[in-house]
Amino acid sequence: MEPQREAEPTRLGPYRVIGTLDAGGHADDARRRIVRDERTGRTAVLMLPHETLADDPGYRVRFRSEAANSRRLTGPWAAPVIDVAGPDADLPWVAYACFPALPLPAALAVYDGPFPELTVRALGAVLAHALAHWHASGLVHAGISPQATLLMADGPRLTGYGLVRAATPHGPDRGAPLGADAFSLPPEQRAGERPSPAGDVYALGAVLCYAATGRPDVAEPARAALPEALGELLAACLAQEPGQRPRPDTVAGELLAASAPEAVGRLPEAVATALARQAAAYPAEVPVRAPEPVEEAAAAAPPRHFRRALVVGGLSGAVGLALGAGGVAGWRAAGEGAGSRGASDRRGIAPAPLWRHDIGSEPQQTPLLWRGRTALVSTTDSVTALNLRTGKKIWSRDDLYPMSALTLLDNGTFVSPDTSAFSLVSLATGRIKGVERRYDGVDGPAIYQFLGAVKDICWFLTRRYGDGGAESGDHAVVSYDSVRRKAIWSTPLPAPYRGDGTTTALWHSTMLLLPSQGDDAGEDASSYLALDRRSGRKLWTRKFPGMKDESAEQRLVAPGDLLVSCDDHVLRAFHIAGGEERWRMATKGRVSGTPAAQGRSLYATDSRAITYAVDVRSGSARWRRGSAAPLESSSLRGGTAVSHSGATVFQVTDSEIEALDAADGSLRWRSALAGRGQQAAVPGQVVGVAPGIVLVLNGTILYALPVD
């Protein structure tokens, strides 16, 4: 005989349970109750954990955390949060200022069938617009389901933020997690991946399919009766591959395109009547005593009736919800501003982006940042300079044709190399200030890689060609003064250090370090050639045991005259001058990307989504923090970065960018900014930092977030 489950409490904090919103047989994620706030007498909606997981301590912690983070959602279609249970509560909950309201399954039940096409389109346009707004702010809802969609007289509200994140630890295929609606769960999340913006689009498609058919089934036969245009759009939203799903703004635009934007629709009469009966059955009551001050009082105010027209993808108009005869209040999709323009003042809440810019095509390299004022972006189509503070284009050129990476100089110019020359281009205007033609490969050597620059001096690799265009074997590294436009020195390169055009050079205060490529150091050692930066004189070549050739991109020079390398599951630090190993530290997974150094600390993230803060003097971990993102099977999209001030560390996982406090590793905020096309399911990469700004690139969309 199964043990009897403890009865659900009738009082939670200041709220008394007076009714239920769950439609029979549809409470697949969480429980929603009608409650009365005994401080104010107002009626509200309260969400509790799924009853099968209410006794799970881990789930309760995650549920409470996501409930608190639901305050991050802004705009008219997020259910306004009044209260969240405190950490000492036996049962977590979140209270919303939503009443009267019907979950979508209950609305279909009282309507006695699926909604008409125009009703579904209006509902979908509103919710898609809300998702577009949230995704642009780096937020993934991860809890959209029919039961989480509340219909109100002046528009829908989404509840259930983060229920998928709360429902299950992530890892190998576990099927549909308990506490999360199985019907609207994207296939990649069934397989254990973290929620993403593309997952929200799938869930939205499932909700609209349910609203249009009345069946919790997204299979192709269930969609056969849908109108052709709507069916094609929902099929795209429900694509198995996340990268094939459209963006929310595209969904909103297509839903609006086939609607009648000049008409203000109405709720079906049966739904409007049910809402009126609900309001009459649970009226607000005047409290016996004067109400105590209510936290977040502004959020508790009744929802406003927004009257501004929605503008999505160039389409605008009022969106009517349903064409039922005799209905009551019409629904309008309302736009909202970008929200806060600065960093959030609530811990855990991602700041709204300062700006976003679509660079249009595939980036050729990470943006180059100049003095915290300008971002130089190179794509397959053009080279563009952006104002780093506003995201506005300063200039753009499609005639530079750089054959390799651009190199930024301190004097306000950059180097753009082509096949037979390189140009010095003004950052301010995009005008070419000079062309160097002495390295054309005919009368002189040819440049095959720029290594980088310090101030106005740049370094590059050259090779000479003999008769018939064959390589002569003469390779050199050249130091070039961009102001005087002449070479300072040229040093011949031994065979192991010539590179193949992808050499990752390291810069020491006095030396240029070039890694070996396939020399005789062996599988368990790599070597470096050190050149004096001022004279080009060869200082030494040195083997570093345990350092593998293939990890050259994951090395850096750290304070204390150290060369740090990431090999397998070990961080190693070698003394550059002497070559001896100073310290080593084991990591749980393989470090992905290049670590970041700031002051006396080194930061690295491994494949198990654990970030380490390492004291570079001793090699000991100051702190380590594991993310709830994918575990051993994860391949990280990016590495680790540190803000310009050094106060914030950015950990990039398969699904989110987490901002950590550099002092102790605690979470400041997390963000999953929406990408485009194949990048729609990934969170992007941190590609640059400047005073007060961190740049995130996702596909072709570049975001600037405020930081510190």
From TrEMBL:
Residues 15-256 form the Protein kinase domain. Pfam families: PQQ_2 (PF13360). SUPFAM superfamilies: Protein kinase-like (PK-like), Quinoprotein alcohol dehydrogenase-like. This is Protein kinase domain-containing protein. It comes from Streptomyces yatensis.
